[in-house]
Design brief:
Layout lengths: L2 E5 L3 E3 L4 E8 L7 E7 L6 E6 L5 E3 L7 E6 L4 E6 L8 E8 L14 E2 L3 E6 L1
Parallel strand pairs: 2-11
Antiparallel strand pairs: 1-3, 3-8, 4-5, 4-9, 5-6, 7-8, 9-10, 9-11
C-alpha cells in the first residue's frame, strides 16, 4: 500500500518561500507519477504541479515561474519549492501518486493515492 506524508507547510509573509516535502513509502518513487494539488477554503481542489515517472513536469499557469517540482528517488521524497508566495497561494497542499498516469496531471483528479495534506498560509 502506497502511503504519502506531506510536510513543510507553514505561515509565511507575501514574497516568501517554502519547500514542501512528500515522503513516499510502500513503493519506489521512480515507478510513480506524482503531483501536488491544493485546496483553499470554499474552493475546489486544483492541480499545482506534476512530474510523471518519466520525469516530465507540468505546472498550473498560476504558479509557473514561481514553483518547482522535483524529486529525490534515493530518498523516496517529492518536493515542491515555492517562491514569491502570494496570498492566493494559501491552501492545504496535497501530494498524490499513481502508477499508471503520465504526462501533465494538473488537470487530473483521479490519482490513486493521496496524502493528508500540509497547510500553507501566506499573509502580508
Amino acid at each position: 500500500q502506497v502511503q504519502l506524508v506531506e510536510s513543510g507547510g507553514d505561515s509565511v509573509r507575501t514574497g516568501g518561500s517554502l519547500r514542501l516535502s512528500c515522503g513516499v513509502s510502500g513503493a519506489t518513487l521512480s515507478r510513480l507519477s506524482m503531483a501536488w494539488f491544493r485546496q483553499a477554503p470554499g474552493k475546489e481542489r486544483e492541480g499545482v504541479a506534476s512530474m510523471d515517472k518519466f520525469g516530465a513536469t507540468c505546472y498550473a499557469d498560476s504558479v509557473k515561474g514561481r514553483f518547482t517540482i522535483s524529486k529525490d528517488n534515493a530518498g523516496n521524497t517529492l518536493y515542491l519549492q515555492m517562491n514569491s508566495l502570494k496570498a492566493e497561494d494559501t491552501a492545504m497542499y496535497y501530494c498524490a501518486a499513481d502508477f499508471h498516469l503520465g504526462g501533465c496531471m494538473v488537470t487530473m483528479t483521479r490519482l490513486n493515492y493521496w496524502g493528508q495534506g500540509t497547510q500553507v498560509t501566506v499573509s502580508s
